[in-house]
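DM between two lab members

TW: hey, do you still have the Secreted protein entry open?
JB: yeah, one sec
JB: this one, 95 aa:
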Amino acid sequence: MRRSVVAVSGVLAAVMLFVAAPVADAADGDLIVDGTPYHDLAGCVFFGADDTHSFENNTGNAITLYETADCQGDSSGVLAPGESGTYVAKSAIIG
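TW: and the structure you got?
JB:
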């Protein structure tokens, strides 16, 4: 009986982790960076070593830009859907 309770508890814990885990949905539309379209974006996106880029947000989501390659630290800008501009950024988080 005790083994059954432990087994059921383990299964329930695994199910709770699966249900509680956030799911990153890909953004609809394109983010254009220096003329190059990026499709189906989700999570942190790295744009390369050059710091200054031209951005055009054709997605339905806000895009937060970062000067670091790993989407950490202070943001260098936020592009609302439909906005464009030139920013110092190496990475971005969509949504």
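TW: got it. The CA atoms of residues 35 and 54 lie 8 Å apart. The two ends are 47 Å apart (CA to CA).
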